[in-house]
Records
---
Amino acid sequence: MRFTPTELTADELALQTEVRSFLAEELPPGSHEPGLGMSARHDKDFSKKMAERGWVGMALPTEWGGSDRNAVDRFVVVEEMLRWGAPVGYHWVADRQTGNIILKFGTDEQKERFLPPICRAELGFSIGMSEPDSGSDLASVTTRAERDDGGWIVNGTKIWTSNAHTNDWFICLLRTAPLEPGGNKREGLSQMLIDLHNTDGLELSPIPFLNGEHHFNEVSFNDVFVPDENVVGQPGMGWNQNTTEMAYERGGPDRWLSPFSTVEQLLRELEGTELGPLAVELFGELTARWWGIRNLSLSVSRLIDAGEAPSVESSLVKEMGTRFEIEVIEKLVEFVDHELSPGSSSLFERLLAQCVLTGPGNTIRGGTIEILRSVAAKGLQGLPA
Amino acid sequence: MSVDSLITDTATRLFEQHCTHSAIQQAEADGEAPGIWAAFAETGFPWISLPEEAGGSGGTLLDALEVLRLVGYHAAPIPAAETGMLGGWLLASAGLELPEGIVTVAPGTDTDSLTVDATGAVSGAVHMVPWGRAAERLAVIADGTIASIPLAGATVEPGTSLAGEPRDTLTFDSVAAETAPAPGGIDVEALRFRGALSRVALMAGAIEKMSRLTVSYTNEREQFGRPVARFQAVQQHLVWAAQDAALARMAAETAGRHAERDEDARFEIAAAKLVANQAATRATKACHQAHGAMGMTQEYELHHSSRRLWSWRSEYGGVREWSAWVGAAAVDAGADGLYPLITR
């Protein structure tokens, strides 16, 4: 394990300036209700504007509609968007991981079909992993796909599928070979791309989120036909592909910036008042800790660009970053010290109320911190994760 | 900007040879370690980052911080920071002679009362001075003047840090000092930040050592028929210590790079000290818990790291002092400037 300090190059700083100007113009403070990091609003128009500037699918090759930029460039764009609370929800998953998976494992036909629309922000993706009896133990999924002429017939249920109702497609982890008693459950799994809204036998129903919003869905499959051309990579190799996909989910700014817009807004609302030592020290501690975590997270992106697979490093950053997010929320609640109203006239207080109501998910989504610890600890001991 | 691996390799070999468990124990019992210091001084390491024309060893501040990281890693019981990047830096910057022996500086306590009169005579007391008893000179900065005070004329009242390292009270009664005007930019605040940076580097090394020691111990120690590192509850401690090791080292190296460029690195140093102080607190807790009773004895080496961390986390400013400093910078930056400050 080694995190090498790194700084942004002149080109990367120029990109940062460009993104900041874009945001200051498109979403000046006070003109929009910021989101909490990656729990951002879906705004196809905003996603489109980003795509026009080459900021969606930016690390994908130009031949497939991307900008051929690298992981650090994407880091720069993403951190600015998230800290601003910009509405990046629509293209978020496709940009972060689905595009990469299709590029890495998909056929040329699939790349042609999916990557350019992802980069134009015309195709939003959800992730179909969890099931009623399958969360952290993801290899235990039982939604099954059985062979049929030219494709597969799928039956089963996916749950906690974020934004299936607002996105267009999802990438599902399915069992394509039955699990024999005593067999390896990591074998016989496959990844498939499925249209969420134009597929016979596929049914979506909302599962109300902790804050009352429609975010999660249950997606049930009743004899859903998936053609062979929608299978990603080799049938049966889904577990390895999925593990690769999870690596894209870890260690980035989305794992430590969720409450940033809330803290920034607190500072904004306190401007012009005399701050006591408690407030000053609170801002000081949070600022310093964000500085520290950002440096670690940035160095993970640099490692990815150097062709390394920093799975231990990214697990460490994600575990630490999401716990930090929760600590930030707790410190803000202690600082405020009165009951929060989700409908408060103070934007800071509205945001903090949402932080409290959605915060527990931060250390769960994309792999619970317990799973991450297990991955990281094995890496620290030189054992296979 | 990077450190020559020759420095890392040479210092590592030196400390591996000299800073054995028993040698560090002995240093604590004796209150000094002249043998370890002599071997260290032989290489010229104490004076890295001080210009050769001033009698230093040359090299960069980053080189000096790398040596300090290794001092921390190996729990070397020597005043490396004081003689070089703190005291030596003060003397060299004012054109005062670098002595052959140890130089120390006072980290600054509320009850320090040193005064230098117009004739250069020093009176008063300074407390918690690292290796005061073994030093040849005390370097002091005050009111635009840098003084090099011979310790032959001081009264030394021995004391220790939580790590059992010398932290002495030095009392002077009209002792003649060599003085010179301090160059611009070198003042009490500058020394405070530099002292903080030195502690961040030391802590980064100590946390890394503790983290590795804990991984290896928990893989050897068996309970319930298997290595305790196989238990998830123990793995949590390994992960947290590794995170804090990474965080403190990143903080040290990032702040060091900014300071090396001779820019205003106060924000980075303040943030680094705060982050490292907290990392020290969390990591010592995690590593001690994972070690169980074994870590509660001086027969085992964990305490060389953990007790030093409890000392260094408070030296040159604890969490509150640096939170207040960074907080003032954040408030000054304002809401629109907050993220640009973090990413500057």
Note: Chain B touches chain A through 46 residues (CB under 8 Å).
---
Amino acid sequence: MFKKQIWFIIAFMLLLTFALAACESETSEPAASDDTTAETADTESTDSADTEAAADTADTASSEGGYQIPTVEEGKHNVAFVYVGPHDDGGWTQAHDVARMYVEENMENVHTAYVENVAEGADAEQVIRSLARKGFDTIFTTSFGYMDGSELVASEFPNVDIIHLTGYKANGENFGNLMGAMENMKYVAGMVAGARAKADGNPKLGYIATFPIPEELRLGNAFALGAQETCPDCQVDVRWIFTWHDPIIEQEAAKSLFDGGAQVVMTGADTPAPAEAAPEGKWGITYDYQYNCTNPACLTSMYWNWGPVYADIVERSINDEYVGGWEYFESDTGGMGLFGFGEGEDLMPGVASLPEEDLALIRDTYGKFLSGELGRFDVFKGPITDNQGNLVLADGVSLQQEDLDGFAQFGAQCETCMYWWNENITAELPDLDS
Amino acid sequence: MNWEVIFHAGLATGTVLLFAAIGEIFAERSGILNLGVEGMMLLGAMAGFSMSLSSGNVWLGLGAAILAGGILSMAHGLVTIHLQADQVVSGLSLTFLGTGLALVLGEGLTGQTAAQMTLFDIPVLSQIPFIGPAAFERHSILVYIGYLLAPAAAYYIVKTRPGMHLRAVGEKPAAADTVGINVYAQRYFYVFVGGCLAGLAGATISLSVSPGWYSVQTTSGQGWIAVGLVIFAQWNPIRAAVGAYLFGALRRLILDLQGPALILGMTNPLYVNSNFSFFLQMTPYLLTILALVIGSRQAMKKRLGAPAALGVPYIRGERGA
């Protein structure tokens, strides 16, 4: 009888753990176990090392539901960042942390701090509220699932500016959202991938997609359209992984695409998995963080440069000029780029050995995107046909902003909603009414 | 979609589950349930990667991983064998302890590249059609060790004298004690072996299957699948191996199934609607739960062949359970 109970408890515990394990792809240990505290304690030490003035602060750091909430510095403008992953993840979160340090170093009288590994949802709301209560003046919340919490806390603290990435809500006052036209970089990366695949004589590409949301379809289509320009025969295969950050699954998806015949694999998830998993003679393109393109099999990295963007927003926040709206910056702001093409950067070997005419075209197009001559509405300009044979856009017609970021069933006012695959993509989207 | 490729990947990733499950079989056969496999694996993965990174030698990395898992398991041994505490609670805390230790000690390792296991072919066997390319080509030595470990473990447990002692201690420790077997020493030893194999399983991930250190996502719950697999396999190493390889192949199949539009001339449901892959991703966990539910019935447990003294602390001088 006793044994039976034990087994029942085990089964129940296992069920519970599986449920936790399932959530773990986005968060770390949600329970207030020793590792969370240890990690946030580390946050604190890194932070105080950064600023050296932590000892001056009157009150000590407090903890909120297992997260260590950093302290403010009196007399300075205090800026806090909330991260979904570890600050050194080699991708999305690291790009934001580099920008945080940029703000700290380049702006006078500004103090920055961060909280990492914050679970999306209720935990995030608590952390954001604690930060606001502590006296932080500007708070950046950098994951989709922080949207509702950010909105709520912004309404409770009208003097705190809260900027959310990447969502679709704003209140016109102290809460706004922020995103950039990464489709421009994905387009040029598509041109690089197409040229490489053509030169290697294997016109097959791969795309590791995260969730079937407009952002991922938009970026995948931009990549496919770019590839079409340098390699009209190229086809793009897709693997959905349903996670933003899971290095192991990302590597498995990359291997699956490479084994399926892909010559170059590009990713929409957070880690440099495609380059790590690339077998001899094949190539990967990495995302988010400028310096994660270290593997020789990496062609380029489509990176974010949030620093100047953040500095601009913090500046406005200091002057009480920040109006929470809907910000979508273009590539001419310097907020993004392709690794290897910038000043002082060498092309990766797989790009440097491309045919001269392709390389010239790529450089030319990249330059136009950076100068503002081309933009996101040029990426999505007709004629574009989807892979079901329908004409998405007639010659010369561009998508509207609502089309780039909207699904009809989310209530977006889009005419040509982002729910289609370009003609050279060999995958299908489920019927929406099924 | 290519079955050769899928089985090839399945054998590589399945090796992780194989090591962990066989380790757990040893521990459970001696009567100690250790639910801390996930924690030991994670610590092993971290130790292996860290050592390989600092020394540049994978073998040292493997050694460090095995030791790390083994040492951590001794904490469980002390609490459950010596202090006779509840094995379930201790095992669960071991998971938290191992996870916490691994994360703290692994700080800063993410994104680095360390030496990793080389892949090689087995000369003659790789010529066999289908089986050769899937099982004997481009694998690390760990996969080949895995092929040998399962039958060796089965032989050891069933046919040898020390194996008989192991089973005796797990079935009726009091009886084993009367014939002069040191129950505590036996249990400590096999918990240690289980820990070592769990550590090796972790290092198989961080040094071979998906090289690198990715904090909790390195193992992402595979330790729990291994625990379920033990019941699923009825404490039999050979069945555990089959299950491990099948689960390994399934992980890859889910992704590869998204590729072709047609399978055997029929429309591929995953091609048309990739959301179906959620159901496939669920299956290893579903089967684990199923195994646990079936295994929790007393009558069924007997039929499954669970060690009779599993989970029961042995107290010398008292009548056995």
Note: Chain B has one domain: 3-304.
